[in-house]
Amino acid sequence: MVGKPKIAVYWTGGCGGCDVSFLELGAPLLDVLAKVEIAFWPALVDAKRADVEAFAPRSLAATLINGTLRTEENVEMVHLLREKSQLVVAFGACAHLGGVPGLANLVSREETLRRVYGDGFAIAPPPGGEADDAPPNLLPQAQPLSTEVTVDYVVPGCPPPPALIGLLFDALLSGDLPPAGHVFAHDKALCEECPRTREDRVLTKIVRPHELVPDPEACLLDQGMICLGPVTRGGCGAACPKAGMPCTGCLGPTPHAGDPGLAMISALASLVRAGDEGEASFAGEDAVLDSLVDPVGTLYKYSLPSYVAKRRSG
Amino acid sequence: MAEAQFEPRIVAFLCRWCAGAGADLAGTSRLRYPPNAVAIRVNCSGRVEPQWVMEAFRSGADGVFIGGCHPGDCHYVSGNYKARRRVHLLKRMLSELGIEPERVRLEWVSATEGAKFARLMHEFVEELRALGPRTDPGEAAPSAALPAPSRRKG
Ligand code: SF4
Ligand code: SF4
Ligand code: FES
């Protein structure tokens, strides 16, 4: 008898949120767990690297990897898992695009180490023990999974919404697999599924979410919030805009948008006004544009290592 | 032996109604200006996408020049105003990324301003020489909108 397909879930430089996100599947998770054998999942199952090394090549049906690649050990582990797996899935924004930890690419590795381990609060000796203060072997930059191994599929999101996780398991368990490279989300922009009414109003001010109680019906971008809905894939059901929070782009850009930040700069430049267009309004327009605090952190919150991606060296 | 002077490479997006014609005039008037720029003619400065500017940097440009019509003269009424707002935001982003914002320059040049075009090119080349070559890597990781081919296949 052929056994249940074996799967693995692994985390690299992530926050743990992706591991927890499986619980959001609710009852269907029990069906999934009944149909697969979990061979390796550090968050749930006590297995060690040596156990993975002992697996036969390609003996895992699928490995879902979350987190950004940030240490040499991350890289070794994903190569090891790739060798043992038929399919590798980039699970969550960190593995897909670099994720929030990818914003550390704005500063050098040395600066990161200094902030965390040098001046930092992060390591204190355990009571009665010694400080283990050898910093991990950080890579120069955070990298998405696809920079090291072939990625067969992507489940995007921070963390991935249950509906999209469900699509992945439907495909894996039915054997009805999409073509390589498939991203389990829509190719169309989030605005298409957002219930808010968008009128492409001109923007005379840019506000941050805590500065405004938004109108419940109107588009958040029209109300001056930087909502990345126009350049971001749909598939989440517009959970954030429905709750009055602008989309921050966690599903990644649509294939059409390309570089999400540059596409959004274009869009914002078209919308911003300070009175009639012309020389007399230049200073006013600049003031509106300058009220966008931290353009890189806002427009590339999850994707810096995948796009403009320049960092200071040394 | 004297060290060779750094010759910055410039990509110049020139609106064909104004700056492009201005550049032609500089040429036909035999005004001398440095040959560092590769000119790309566009229908309006408002057509220049931030993605193109970054693509120029990725392809090795040290500076990007955008020439548009004077305020009030844009053939499409407001393309130059849009270009100005784009460049303003793009420059803020560049400084956050550690790329000197002076490497992008937007100027108004009319079809009769051949001399102004030549002067701006001189100025820009001098400014870029002072900044030196771009030292940042600049090239993005392979676009991860879709999984990119891996460097080392597992
Ligand atoms: S994608 Fe989001 S939830 Fe998942 S590991 Fe990264 S930061 Fe955490
Ligand atoms: S709120 Fe955001 S997602 Fe919804 S229509 Fe407006 S821009 Fe699009
Ligand atoms: S036509 Fe020249 S800038 Fe628009």
Explain what the structure shows.
The complex is a heterodimer of chains A (314) and B (154). Chain A is an alpha/beta fold and 314 residues long. Chain A has helices spanning 17-21, 28-35, 49-54, 72-84, 93-97, 109-118, 162-174, 239-242, 260-271, 282-290, 295-299, and strands at 6-11, 37-40, 60-66, 69-71, 85-91, 138-143, 153-155. Chain A has 2 domains: 6-183, Rossmann fold (3-Layer(aba) Sandwich); 190-307, no CATH class. Chain A contains 11 helices and 7 strands. In chain A, the strands form 2 sheets. Chain A has a 5-stranded parallel β-sheet with strand order 2-1-3-5-7, sandwiched between helices. Chain A has a two-stranded antiparallel sheet with strand order 4-6. The radius of gyration of chain A is 22 Å and the shape is globular. Mean pLDDT of chain A is 92; it is low at 310-314. With 154 residues, chain B is α/β, with parallel strands linked by helices. Chain B has a single domain (10-131), classed as Rossmann fold. Chain B is 36% helix and 15% strand. Chain B contains 4 helices and 4 strands. Chain B has a 4-stranded parallel β-sheet, sandwiched between helices. In chain B, helix 1 links the parallel strand 1 (10-15) and strand 2 (37-42). In chain B, helix 1 (19-28) packs across helix 4 (114-131). The N and C termini of chain B lie far apart (50 Å). The model of chain B is unreliable at 137-154 (pLDDT under 50). Bound molecules: iron/sulfur cluster (2 copies) and FE2/S2 (inorganic) cluster. One iron/sulfur cluster (SF4) binds at residues 14-15, 17-18, 66-67, 92-94, 99-100, 158-159 of chain A.
Topology:
The complex is a heterodimer of chains A (314) and B (154).
Chain A: E1 6-11, H1 17-21, H2 28-35, E2 37-40, H3 49-54, E3 60-66, E4 69-71, H4 72-84, E5 85-91, H5 93-97, H6 109-118, E6 138-143, E7 153-155, H7 162-174, H8 239-242, H9 260-271, H10 282-290, H11 295-299
Parallel strand pairs in A: 1-2, 1-3, 3-5, 5-7
Antiparallel strand pairs in A: 4-6
Chain B: E1 10-15, H1 19-28, E2 37-42, H2 50-58, E3 63-68, H3 79-97, E4 104-108, H4 114-131
Parallel strand pairs in B: 1-2, 1-3, 3-4
Bound molecules: iron/sulfur cluster (SF4) (2 copies) and FE2/S2 (inorganic) cluster.
One iron/sulfur cluster (SF4) binds at residues 14-15, 17-18, 66-67, 92-94, 99-100, 158-159 of chain A.
